[in-house]
Records
---
Amino acid sequence: MKPCLLLLSILAFPHLPLPAAPSEPAAVAPEVDASVVPECQARGGLPNFFAKLAAGGPVRIAYLGGSITEAWGWRDFSRDWFARQYPQAQISQIRATISGTGGEFGACRLQEHVLRHDPDLVFVEFAVNGTGATTQRSIRSVEGIIRQVRRHDPNAEVCLVFTLSSGMVKGLQEGRSPRVVTDMKTVADHYAIPTIDFGPGVVRLLKEGKLVFKGAAPAKDAPPQTPIVFSSDGTHPLDAGHRLYLDAIVRSVPALQSAGRPGPHSMPSALDADSWDPASLVALDAPGVTRSAGWQKIEPPDGTEQRQRISQYFPGVWAASAPGDTVEFAFEGVGFGLSGFRGPSAGLFRVTVDNRPPQTATFFDSYSYAGRVSHKAWFYPDDLPRGKHRVKIEFLAELPDHAAILKKEGLAFKKPDAAPTPVFHLAAILLAGALVP
């Protein structure tokens, strides 16, 4: 079966179960002890956002993040809360959320998914999915997001929010923030960007015995319960967990309102001269991208909301059909990646940059083993010197070592009756820079 036909038969973009729409948010929890890990650091506040809310008229809030923000929850709750507080404003949301993606991908897709809609406020949520494997990459990607927003509209506001997963709880209980949060706060300090940490409020309730971080989800339409069940998987909040995230925002509003003065934000010099600004998402049929003859452009199948939204986010899906099929391009910048699809059939591909030794990669990971095919972003692991670089991507038409990959995650490998046909599907090229001829 050809890869493009195989995709049409198995591609199923995951859509997490979403809680029912809320009527009113829960009562705000008592004030959080911020003596060790602060819940809110207002810094320069959100003066332009609150001034626009008070003046009335259209106000656009963008939500840039992963599956935690993708789900019906704090995103919708917060928009609705602001709408109730400021009925004179017409508040809309820009939903720029893609499950399983982090800050590097966020920097590359920001222009296409967020800035072209002219947001007044951008909430950035990447604490769980990460912003880069190293502090340097993390700072570069987050700084790239902020600088792009500021260049697009100096009056637009940015607020970094920190969600949490089970692996972060112990550190918060001991007064320590994860490395990714520390990295993001470093950038926030430099640009006077406010941050809201959703963790301290959750950890306080856990300490008081009023919350179970991971447990069985309550039955639908069940009355509020004590202790609160925060999540069923240790990462994605249930309805009650999302309401705690809203509570943290509401508690932070007075500080965010009082800090700073309305007016254009200045742009300080970059923390890192190689920050991901500019950054871009490039179609495989864009001028300057060369494909071998075997590539075919296909559309994701229609049906679920998630599939439709993926179609809106990307300029199509391309499928390689034979070993040796290639994509080549040149860009001016410091890094790049690929937007593709994980799944049991995801094959190996080889990446060659300039005259560097080639690297072999795959979209397959532990999340794609049990028949799951979904979007995944891959980034070249090495930081490149700023300048012009030429890249060649070659499909090897071989399967990766599934057993070895799963073993790293502590998972057992069950050999299938028949090995799947290797496939290679791409949706876009991701550049920390810009395409050049």
Note: Residues 40-258 form a domain with the Rossmann fold fold (CATH 3.40.50.1110).
---
Amino acid sequence: MIRRRIAILTLSVGSGHVRAAEMIDRALAEGGEDVEIQILDAIGLAHPWFVWAYVQTYWWMLRHAPGFWRRLFERRQRKRHRATAPEWFFRWGCAPVLKRLKQFAPRLVVVTEIGAAEIAALGKREGYFSAPILAVQTDFQTEPPWVQPEIDIYCVASDEAKSQLISWGVSPNRLLLCGIPIDPAFGLPFDRNELLQALGLDPRRPVVLVMGGGMGPMPMDEIVQSLELCGLPLQVVAVAGHDQALRSRLDALRGKLALDIHPFGWSDRIPEFMAAAGLLITKPGGVTSAEALTAGLPMVLTHPIPGPEERHSKYLEGLGVAVRADDSRQIPQLVHSLLGDPDRLKEMGRRGRDIARPDAAHAVAQVGRAMLDRGTYIDLLATAHARPGESAYLM
């Protein structure tokens, strides 16, 4: 059997892009043994000076000059800039990435991050590969640099993103509404009582999940401490991810507050944590938000990355699935208000499940396989994403 090669190109400026790539990888692999898939993280392959200039400066701005980053982002949106960096910068800085793509000789290239989309478009334009490109967006809003003539099909997360791309010149026939690729486990019907027992949580006390996302300044330990002001017998599950210093600070809080704190580092049990919790406090990252929607978990959104995540906050609040905390000091009152209104929480959860797309990764995989089977000139039907009971239609 000849195995067809698929490259999934990402750029790990945040954990969500990588998680989406992994879910697409899994969904494509489940379709059969006729494909060979490689996930390529440009950060791990590019020259160190590129990583420093493109990624580290971005992180520095988020932490020390967020207002400056916001102005850059808004200007890019307003002026409709079609690049996050000059073409020469990608050509030289990502030469090892382009070389790897050429050596792998993929039949399809999937991209899950905006910079990765620019790298792939450059690679195709300059002859490193000739395969079609499938762009998979992991945010509910989009940005002009996604618009690259070399991209064949876009899988978007919302009607808003679709409308934005159309306004910037992308043909509607190249757009499919698939949702954000997440682990389908977030949609599983867990037995909550059994789950609480397995996690060592008391079913008589409310559970609040606190997550900080993969990047950006969110003072999780300060937020956890502030929850004592709620005056409720909370159980707080706090996930620090790979931030070991934060995990240590959370561990140090145990026994010092009138809260039952359960700190975790990186964990693959996030679907269980979300199923057990009654409320999530988090940054409004696209993947984390999509996971919470699928779990039917209401959100308190705080400390967004200036620009894109601020728009996410407004979008999710407008859908009635989240509330925004513009300042950490607002969080205790918001948590107290929401946990004291079970009917509102139930309605927020219902709305989240109604708009969730737990099968987004498999929808993207179907689109990818269709592109493999039919090449660039394909007539993609929305059966690639249709929910049960929906008829197929061209997006």
Note: The longest strand covers residues 4-10.
